[in-house]
Amino acid sequence: MNLYDREVLQLIYVAHPFGGDIQNLDDAEWMVAELSALFDAVFWAPWIPMCRYWINDGNSLERGMALDSHAVRLSKQIWFCDDLTKSKGMQEEDKIAQRYGIKCKYFQRNQIIDIIDNPTSMLVESLKLELNG
User: How many Å is the Cα radius of gyration of the chain?
Assistant: First the structure.
């Protein structure tokens, strides 16, 4: 089915550690692009440009997390693309998702890379079936 003919695609929030490391932003951005290309869903991570361009003035973290909270609540699912213990931000996103009943998927970084690198795998097919109902 053509994507334009689909009534609504799921909005899936992508969570990934940042920790002040620009490489983490690049990795997360790459994951968002690749997952969007692979699945019939809208993957997004609005926190990436905030982390990349906002000056850390003390207020930006609090404002960013507040905006992040709203972005998580707008999403149908949240995919965690690395270990939650690596990021306080991801732990907060998980709490918000749990509080609002948002479906969560937990992947290790290597699992996401495997999904992207092996688009015909059983896991990818299973995820596609789940997303497309």
Answer: 15
Q: Provide the greatest CA pair distance for the chain.
A: 47
CA distance 117 to 114: 5
b/e per residue, 6-40, with b = 16+ CB within 10 A? eeebbebbbbbbbeeeeebbebbbebbebbbeebe
Asked if residue 19 lies in contact with residue 87, where contact means CB atoms within 8 angstroms, the answer is yes
Looking at the 3D structure of the chain, how many domains does it have?
A: 1
CA distances from 87 to 29, 76, 84, 90, 127 (A): 17, 22, 6, 5, 25
pLDDT of residue 36: 95
Is 59 among the domain residues? yes
Q: What is the CATH number of the domain that holds 95?
A: 3.40.50.10400
Domain enclosing residue 52, as ranges = 9-132
d(CA 94, CA 77): 11
pLDDT digits (tens, 9 = 90+) for 95-109: 999 999 999 999 999
